[in-house]
Each structure stands twice: as structure tokens, then as C-alpha cells.
Specification:
single chain; 72 residues; mainly alpha; 3 helices; flat
Length: 72
């Protein structure tokens, strides 16, 4: 990857992170915990099942439920 593509990719990543953080400002603590749980569960499901789509979705669902309950 050349330097120009690397700079573009970094700019896109920074912009995406900034936009996603500002989108969460109006979310309740429970909503944030649910979203975080779903994200973590999705990654864990993907890792544990070798990238299986069903494992990823299942992990996200379970993680979202756990995050929802923890965020009470």
C-alpha cells in the first residue's frame, strides 16, 4: 500500500470513529451497553467459529442481550 492510500484509509477511519462517537451521545447507558455487548459478542462469535456468519450473528445476539442486562 502506498503512502497516499494509507493516508486516505487513516482519514476515513478517523472520520468514521468521530461520527460513530457523536451518534452515541443521545443514547442511554443501557443502549450503549447493548451496542457494546453486540459488537464484542459479534467479534467473539466470529473468532470462535472461524468467521462463520451464523457464529458472528449468534455472538452479536447473545452479546447484545448480556450488554442490555448489564446496562440496567
Amino acid at each position: 500500500m502506498n503512502a497516499l492510500n494509507s493516508k486516505k484509509l487513516m482519514s476515513i477511519l478517523v472520520l468514521t470513529c468521530a461520527m460513530s462517537m457523536s451518534a452515541c451521545s443521545s443514547m442511554s447507558t443501557r443502549d450503549k451497553a447493548t451496542a457494546a455487548g453486540a459488537a464484542i459478542g459479534g467479534v467473539a462469535g466470529a473468532v470462535l467459529t472461524g468467521g462463520s456468519g451464523i457464529g458472528t450473528v449468534g455472538g452479536a445476539a447473545v452479546g447484545g442481550i448480556i450488554g442490555n442486562q448489564v446496562g440496567k
